[in-house]
Amino acid sequence: MLPHASLRNSFMEKFDLIVIGGGPAGYAAAMRAIDFGKRVCLIEKDLVGGAGLYNGALSSKTLWEISQKVYEVNRVTKNLRSEAFSLSWDEVRMTLEEAMFERKFHYSCHLKLLQNKLTHGHFEFKRGFGKLLSKNEVEISHNEEKEVIYGDYIILSTGSKPRILPNIPVDHKHILTSDGIEHIKNYPKSLVIIGAGVIGCEYATIFSNFGQTKVYIIDRKDRILPFEDADVSEIVSKNLKLKGVTIHSEAHLERIEVVDGEVEYELSYPDGSHEVIRVEKALVSVGRTPNLEHLGLENAGVTLSTKGAYVEDGDTVTNIPNIFAVGDLVGRIALVNMAEIEARYTVEKIFGSNPPALNYDNVCTIMFLHPEVALVGKNEQQCVQEGLSYKVVKLDYSMISRAIAMRRTEGFFKILVTNDDEMRILGMRAIGEHASSAIQAVGLLIKMNAPIETLSELVHPHPSIVEGIQECVRMLLNKSIFKSAVFKDKMSVYAYEAGVKQELEYL
Predict the structure, then answer these.
(1) Are 366 and 432 a contacting pair, CB within 8 Å?
(2) 3-state secondary structure of 288
(3) Dist CA 218 CA 269 (whole Å)
(4) What's the start-to-end Cα distance of the chain, in Å?
(5) How far apart are CA 215 and CA 192, in angstroms?
(6) Is 287 exposed, middle or buried (0-12, 13-18, 19+ CB in 10 A)?
(7) Is the CB of residue 377 less than 8 Å from the CB of residue 361?
(8) What is the DSSP string of 408-476?
(9) Could you report the per-residue pLDDT of 487-500, keeping only the tens digit for each?
(10) Residues β-bridged to residue 324
(11) What whole-number distance in Å separates Cα of residue 13 and Cα of residue 357?
């Protein structure tokens, strides 16, 4: 039994900041607090790096990179080889584990040196489960031992886990989530993916790239990636189908169960028809949910929203002034880069450097699909939903010299701007080779609220994919090298106002 709070307070260890959770957000918060010379305690119950390293960002993207290489070898040499090139799953797992070990080594060495030598006792890493006892006290449980520490400020950054639906019997053997799919013993002969969002489509891309697995996707909507514009969804969908992926569109999952060591699922469709299919494995990919359990939020009086820990729009402070929540725990945007930015912002706000307010209008994101998709700011769907008047410029990859040289001309750039003389950038979508390298400058312009002329005057390297952005901007300014009136199927500019789309031709 723990002693009374007043008695505990007399001998407990005290910190300027306690961070609960050692994933991307928590780690970034602790490191930023060290910059301010504060006494910091970072608590992690399991794996430092969290989903940013394990069963998530780094691991899944390593799998994607390996699978892309296998696919590319077979694409380039398909007329030269009698048999397709392949890697064993053991070889894939070895490379995956090497990548994770490298990053894990960075974390472990960094923590050890910081704690033992470089911060002169200002930084402590404590292994265990952190639980709030009050607005300042945190109990750490580890191997049946408990310790209570005191913090002037507390940042909650406990991340998220895969969402599990009550009607889907996840057994982590036949029916898995993203926490288990990378730990299978071999390529599944067949795999059904429940959910057609980013994570589901990424794993469909990975396993279809390897060419060892028949992949199915269950999609409730009429197209995959329904939160993105149809032109993006169509290219990704077409390529998945070319690799043999079956997409069950507008399908309702009636049941899924393990039968005779296989996964059997039944679908129904709007026309009243039903379909029963058996596969070797199933992957449940229906989003993530914040890790809120057993944190003791009620002990500190922290309130919750429908998405996670409640914080004000554009901020990270909870209803308790010295307790903050960042990253996936808030349920705002589940991205490593945003989690780190929220964490750094929070520490800067706490310790008085007066940072600019958080801005989610220029968040750069990559979808690791085929081809890759990169996005920043708003898409057309969002602009229509918000009743915005906007212009769109769209340039096909086949008009970009680098894409032609690479013989990879599938894809496009699409930039959205305000439908006025200023033409401020609202957002951009890029799909195609090197798409992820093309959006940062646009993200910066959104943040700066700068005019598009800034991009038109930059001297881009040649040949490069990013030259396509410059040509897009020149099209909007009616001074492009190639004219949209000539290449109507490759270049377009149009305006959208009051629900009406108007094609614009510039000469």
Answers:
(1) no
(2) strand
(3) 11
(4) 80
(5) 6
(6) middle
(7) yes
(8) ----EEEEEEESSSS-BEEEEEEESTTGGGSSHHHHHHHHHT-BTHHHHT----SS-TTHHHHHHHHHH
(9) 888 999 999 987 78
(10) 155, 317
(11) 33
Q: By the 8 A CB rule, do 362 and 441 touch?
A: no
pTM: 0.92
Domains annotated for the chain, with CATH where assigned, are 5-54+95-161+289-350 (3.50.50.60), 175-286 (3.50.50.60), 364-494 (3.30.390.30)
| pLDDT tens digits along 351-407 | 988 888 898 888 999 999 999 999 999 999 999 999 999 999 999 999 999 999 999
Contact 493, 423 (CB under 8 A): no
Alpha-carbon distance 266 to 410, whole Å?
35
The secondary structure of 130-178 as a DSSP string is: EEESSSSEEEEEETTEEEEEEEEEEEE---EEE---TTS---SSSEE-T
Buried b (16+ CB within 10 A) or exposed e, 36-75: bebbbbbbbbeebbbbbbbbbbbbbebbbebbbebbeebe
Please name the amino acid found at residue 71.
Y
The label of the residue with tokens 């991009």 reads: 455
DSSP string computed for 326-362:
-GGGGTS---HHHHHHHHHHHHHHHTT--PPPP--TT
145 phi and psi angles, rounded to 5 deg: -105, 150
